Amino acid sequence: MNKNKIVGLAVLFCSYTLFAEIGTLYDNSKPPTLSLPDAYQRATIALGTATNQFHCISAKIDTRFSSNGEWYFTFYSTNSQPKWVTVEFSGKTHVENMEPLR
């Protein structure tokens, strides 16, 4: 393969990866089917006893786990690794540790 073909394929691959990461955007004209207070309550329940160590620094609507949308919370602590908690509008929760920056 010549150099131009390799560069072209690399650009195409990077473009595809970028657009795949973006995914479906939430339609902001529709109100969420799960209220913020209810989602926050579910997020703190998902954290369990760790809730005493963490404080929420952000909440937004995302489409990472569900194309219908979900609440996406970021929790921080001074003593442990930060966590992301997503609460799908159906009520299903996901808790993940944030990876430290390198």
Q: Could you characterize the architecture of this molecule?
A:
With 102 residues, this protein is α+β, with helices and mostly antiparallel strands. 31% of the residues lie in helices and 25% in strands. It contains 2 helices and 4 strands. The chain has helices spanning 3-22, 36-47, and strands spanning 55-62, 70-76, 83-88, 93-97. It has a 4-stranded antiparallel beta sheet, with helices on one face. A hairpin with a 7-residue loop joins strand 1 and strand 2 (70-76).
Topology:
Blueprint: H1 3-22, H2 36-47, E1 55-62, E2 70-76, E3 83-88, E4 93-97
Antiparallel strand pairs: 1-2, 2-3, 3-4
Task: Give me some keywords for this one.
about 30% helix, 4 strands, about 100 residues, alpha+beta, 4-stranded antiparallel sheet, single chain
Radius of gyration: 18 Å
User: Which residue ranges are poorly predicted, with pLDDT under 50 across at least 5 consecutive positions?
Assistant: 7-21
Instruction: State the secondary-structure class.
Output: alpha+beta
Strand content: 25-35%
Arithmetic mean pLDDT: 78
How many DSSP H or I helices?
A: 2
List how many beta strands DSSP finds: 4
Using the alpha-carbon principal axes, give the shape.
globular
> How would you sum up the major sheet?
4 strands, antiparallel
Separation, N- and C-terminal Cα atoms? 35 Å
What portion of residues is helical?
25-40%
Biggest sheet, strands in spatial order?
1-2-3-4
Please trace the helix and strand order, writing H or E for each element: HHEEEE
Task: Briefly summarize what is shown.
It is built from two helices and four strands, in the order H-H-E-E-E-E. It is of the alpha+beta class.
